[in-house]
Every structure is written in structure tokens, then in C-alpha cells.
Amino acid sequence: MDDPETILPEQLKQFGRKWVNNPCNLVLYGQAGRGKTWFMHCLMHDLFFQRKWIRFFKSKTLDDLIIENMKTYGSAQFLIQKQICDCEFLFLDDIGMERSTDRLERDFFEIIDTRLCTLLPTIISTNLDADKIEESYGSRINSRLKEYQWIKFSGDDLRGRNEIIF
């Protein structure tokens, strides 16, 4: 099986190495299977060894956790403010996989806006482009994400490469 490190373009590898020392907000976008989540895990790996406070959520899992907190505690504010907005690095994977609701849009806006205002890096992966994000999450979130650096992942689907080449 090919090592994903050999599949990613050299420019992206160099960007990742530089990013760890000078992080910024990122949106990693493109079709499924192009290496977005793998790249997120590479960034997290390097941050982990620098002893950084990292939180990683699948978007749908985060939405489910917010709903569970609302049911259990009557609010998800502690979760959103103290465990998500205040962490040093937040990684949100697969934004757009959950069903969009007014509550979800408000909660995700609060997270994205708060982290922008406090200058804490947020890294988002999605299969959606900017137009689809606006359709799903509204103009307020899309407007905030314009302040992020966008990296498009393209090329072939990297999953399922189980061949061995001699």
C-alpha cells in the first residue's frame, strides 16, 4: 500500500511543516478521499509533540454532543465555551455531513466567531466549496470563513489503494 506521505504534493508537505510553527485558520476542502483528514492528523501529530491543547471532532459527533448536553444540562454553553472555544487548536472534520438546522448554524457560528475573535486556530475539513457552505450554514458563517486560508485537495481518490508494486 502506498504511504500517504508519498502521495501528497511536496508543496503541501512544506506548507504543513511551516504551519505548525506559524498556525492560522484553515479550510481544507475537496471531494472525499483526497487526503484532507489525513493532513489534519499530520498537523495534530506535530502539535501533540509540542504539547499543544488539541481538540478534534467529527462535525456530526460535535453536533450530537451539543444536543446531548442540551438535553442533559439544559444548555451546551459550558461545552461550547470551555471545551471547544477555549482550546488552543480546534480541528473540525467533515463539516457539512450533519443536517443543517437553525440551532446548528447558531452553535457553529458561535464557535467560529469566538475563535476568530480570540485568535485561536481552527482547522476545518469539508467536501463543500464556499457556495455550498453558504447554502448549508448561511452567509454569516461563510463570511467568517473568508478570513481562513483555503486549501483545495484535488486529484484521485486516495482510498482503496491496496496494490503492492515491485
Question: Can you give me a brief rundown of this structure?
Answer:
Helix content is 51%, strand content 15%. With 166 residues, it is an alpha/beta fold.
Task: Write a structural description.
By secondary structure, this protein is α/β, with parallel strands linked by helices. It has helices at residues 4-7, 10-21, 36-49, 59-73, 77-85, 102-117, 130-137, 139-145; strands at residues 26-29, 54-58, 89-95, 122-126, 149-152. It contains eight helices and five strands, in the order H-H-E-H-E-H-H-E-H-E-H-H-E. It has a five-stranded parallel beta sheet, sandwiched between helices. Helix 6 (102-117) links the parallel strand 3 (89-95) and strand 4 (122-126). Helix 2 (10-21) runs parallel beside helix 3 (36-49) and helix 6 runs parallel beside helix 8 (139-145).
Query: What summary fits the major beta sheet?
Result: 5 strands, parallel
In DSSP terms (H or I, runs of 4 or more residues), the helix count works out at 8
Q: What structural class do helix, strand and pairing data support?
A: alpha/beta
Q: Which oligomeric state applies?
A: single chain
Tell how many strands the DSSP assignment holds. 5
Strand arrangement in the largest pleated sheet: 2-3-4-1-5
* Average pLDDT for all residues: 85
Order of helices and strands: HHEHEHHEHEHHE
- Proportion of residues in β-strands: 15-25%
Cα separation of the termini: 11 Å
- Whole-angstrom Rg: 16 Å
Uncertain parts: 1-7
* Helix percentage range: 40-55%
C-alpha geometry = globular
